[in-house]
């Protein structure tokens, strides 16, 4: 019996041979055909398989949900899409094909440098712009902050929330005040903390942003870091020597906010770094009072226990 196997067509035929108990294998590839004997228990069987395909092992693995990089979506990768087929080709031919693809990719990527691409882009856009639009562009070789800013929408704050650190640096190099406030008294650091943009927060602090600035209600970046549950940002701000007992206009310290947000881990960090659990708000409430006002539930008791038992200035 002979088995003929063709690479591109992927058709496998088993047929009778004059030699008993022996199966002859004929493998047709792009380059050669070889025949090799294979022991078989029976010579009477006949198998016909057409359109056989081999699928990447990724197709058999369970998909894994992963967290997004830019925070906007999740991605599901099952490793296989409809029509994505892998055939059994001759090994040498496959290697040559991969080498050709790799070589073409390198050649393609080297045909146009970044500078050439930018010049081509500039020419294309200038052809698309009208005369009035070209006039605006010619008048603004550098960013004109007076034309792209309002008291609510600050370019530095917007770029920070978008995570555009290189563009933030360009504005800072042109003399933009890193601690400039909007109509609510918020700085770029405040906004980055609210948006939980940790790389931007670190960058602003390294660039000299003031972590002690209060907004129009007296709240500091630490207040907001506690409110949004940003534990690592809380720790970072403490490293920059912020006052953990600073109170806003209503007398609320970060510890009061932490109890209100019911965040056990941040509460503990504040306590061991010197937060005063006896401080009262303007209406006379201590952090423990706020915890108990939530009622008789597990979280209330858990926070009450922390406030009662964890001493200040002790490393845990």
Supply database-style keywords.
single chain, 316 residues, alpha+beta, Serine Threonine Protein Phosphatase 5, Tetratricopeptide repeat, 3 domains, two-stranded antiparallel sheet
What would you note in describing this structure?
The chain has 316 residues and is α+β, with helices and mostly antiparallel strands. It folds into 3 domains: 2-56 and 86-110, no CATH class; 112-141, no CATH class; 143-309, Serine Threonine Protein Phosphatase 5, Tetratricopeptide repeat, CATH 1.25.40. Helix content is 41%, strand content 10%. It has 14 helices and 7 strands. It has helices at residues 91-110, 114-128, 131-138, 145-148, 155-162, 165-173, 188-194, 198-206, 221-227, 231-239, 254-261, 264-272, 287-292, 298-309, and strands at residues 2-6, 12-15, 22-28, 33-39, 48-49, 64-66, 75-77. It has a 5-stranded mixed beta sheet, with no helix packed on it. A two-stranded antiparallel ribbon has the order 6-7. A hairpin with a 5-residue loop joins β1 and β2 (12-15). α5 packs antiparallel against α6 (165-173), α7 (188-194) runs parallel beside α9 (221-227) and α9 runs parallel beside α11. The radius of gyration is 34 Å and the shape is elongated. The N and C termini lie far apart (76 Å). Residues 1-99 and 105-110 have low confidence and may be disordered.
In short:
The chain has 316 residues and is an alpha+beta fold. Helix content is 41%, strand content 10%.
